Amino acid sequence: MIYAMLVACEVGFWVVLLSGLLSRYVLRRRTLGAVLLACVPLVDLALLAFAVVDMQRGARATIGHGLAAMYLGFTVAFGPKLVQWADVRVAHRFADGPAPARPARFGPEHARRIRGNGLRHVLAFAIGMSLLATAILVVDDPDRTGNLGQVAVGWSFLLLVDLVILARYTLWPRPEPAGAE
């Protein structure tokens, strides 16, 4: 059941996001668009609430239950940047906004962007781990919440890889290729 809810909330996330942007730029209803965009994190909050209630009612935690915490962490940490990214593109397409700037692919500016994303990942990790710990405390049954530890270990590994990449680009920024404009 949790996996069906994950899929439904993923679809819901994009529907709410696109509805907010289309309301803002196609329908020219800026207030409605702002309200819908503010509701984007509520989709992931509903997913997390479902996961905790599901475990409280006796379900054994699965990786899907852990993903609910990860989704909310990522939405809080990366959501504003994602909305900004989508906003620029929809504004350009539907409201004669400026063309989106291409992100730097080389040098210090590229390294700065990588660092920003790495720090957002650290924030997402902190939020997600806090939510996982809270879910474990609320359910209060180690036999049913044990799989949440696997999520924590897997996510810790991914964060470590991300931090290694961040360090690599910080210490040795990608040089611009010879002959590039």
Gyration radius, to the nearest Å?
Answer: 19 Å
Provide a count of the helices.
Answer: 7
**Span between termini:** 52 Å
Shape: flat
**Approximately how much beta-strand content do the residues carry?**
under 5%
The domain count comes to: 1
| Average pLDDT over all residues | 90
Please provide the count of β strands.
0
Residue runs with pLDDT of under 50 for 5 or more positions: none
Percent in helix: over 70%
Structural class label: mainly alpha
Biggest sheet descriptor = none
Order of helices and strands: HHHHHHH
Sequence-ordered SSE layout with sheet pairings:
Layout: H1 2-25, H2 30-38, H3 40-56, H4 63-94, H5 107-139, H6 142-145, H7 147-171
Helix pairs in contact: 1-2, 1-3, 1-4, 3-4, 4-5, 4-7, 5-7
Task: Tell me what you see in this structure.
The protein has 181 residues and is mainly α. It has one domain (2-171). 80% of the residues lie in helices and 0% in strands. It contains seven helices and no strands. The chain has helices at 2-25, 30-38, 40-56, 63-94, 107-139, 142-145, 147-171. Helix 3 (40-56) runs antiparallel to helix 4 (63-94) and helix 5 (107-139) runs antiparallel to helix 7 (147-171). The longest helix has 33 residues, at 107-139. The chain is flat and about 60 Å long. The mean pLDDT is 90.
In short, what is this structure?
By secondary structure, this protein is mainly α.
Which features characterize this protein?
181 residues, flat, mainly alpha, 80% helix, 0% strand, 7 helices
